């Protein structure tokens, strides 16, 4: 957390200093943009730490409702696509299995999807594609997020879901973060009866997947909500 805070203080101090030459408007705008970006990173770290604390203390709650998972994913992608495309990543989507209904907290499921998309950006090169697919497998709805990045060695595939774990790829790419994103994703998914895992070939990209129980098509919405 000291890294983004250090950037914020450094650039703010420069803007407020009377001991240097006047800064032109374009440079001022650049400094303010850096401050804003680093503040957003710091806010995300704080949110991750708060979520982790809620899980550990048992104070984490869900606001569940019946939703069409495909529509939920499409909405989340629409909100994330502009920032993803700014990094040079193309985003492809796909649906198999029709309208899949699940009983979930939509904001928390969007949080999981957003985290997986951000990881795909961090661990793959600009210009590569990210593919998000929703499909049915037996009595589960599955969402997959695939990238063309480094891949994850087999020995790390379970460890990356442990709090504060930082894999070799994170160190090589200089990726900053708390190491809590994937553990929080797992806690959110498992709290709603699902599971999360990763599949990949190292050097050819990773596919993160999470599943959620499908609602029984024969039950009424009221029965399903109960």
The number of helical runs is 7
Report the sheet with the most strands, covering strand number, pairing sense and barrel closure: 5 strands, mixed
First and last CA, distance:
42 Å
What is the CATH architecture assignment of the largest domain? Answer: 2-Layer Sandwich
CATH C-level class of the largest domain: Alpha Beta
CATH topology of the largest domain: Heat Shock Protein 90
pLDDT below 50 for ≥5 consecutive residues: which ranges? 218-226
The overall pLDDT average reads 81
What radius of gyration results from the CA coordinates? 20 Å
Strand order within the widest sheet? 2-4-5-7-6
Tell me how many strands there are: 7
- What is the overall silhouette? globular
H and E order: HHEHEEHEEHHEEH
């Amino acid at each position: 957390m000291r890294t983004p805070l250090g950037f914020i203080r450094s650039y703010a101090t420069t803007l407020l200093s009377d001991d240097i030459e006047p800064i032109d408007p374009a440079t001022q705008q650049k400094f303010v943009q850096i401050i804003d970006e680093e503040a957003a990173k710091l806010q995300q770290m704080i949110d991750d730490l708060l979520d982790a604390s809620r899980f550990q203390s048992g104070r984490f709650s869900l606001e569940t409702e019946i939703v069409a998972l495909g529509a939920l994913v499409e909405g989340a992608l629409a909100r994330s696509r502009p920032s993803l495309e700014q990094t040079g990543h193309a985003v492809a989507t796909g649906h198999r299995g029709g309208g899949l209904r699940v009983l979930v907290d939509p904001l928390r499921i969007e949080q999981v999807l957003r985290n997986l998309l951000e990881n795909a950006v961090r661990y793959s090169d600009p210009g590569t594609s990210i593919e998000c697919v929703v499909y049915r497998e037996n009595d589960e709805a599955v969402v997959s997020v695939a990238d063309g990045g480094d891949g994850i060695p087999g020995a790390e595939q379970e460890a990356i879901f442990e709090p504060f774990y930082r894999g070799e790829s994170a160190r090589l790419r200089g990726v900053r973060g708390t190491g809590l994103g994937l553990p929080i994703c797992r806690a959110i998914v498992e709290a709603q009866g699902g599971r999360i895992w990763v599949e990949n070939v190292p050097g050819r990209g990773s596919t993160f997947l999470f599943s959620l129980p499908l609602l029984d098509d024969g039950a009424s919405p009221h029965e399903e909500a109960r």
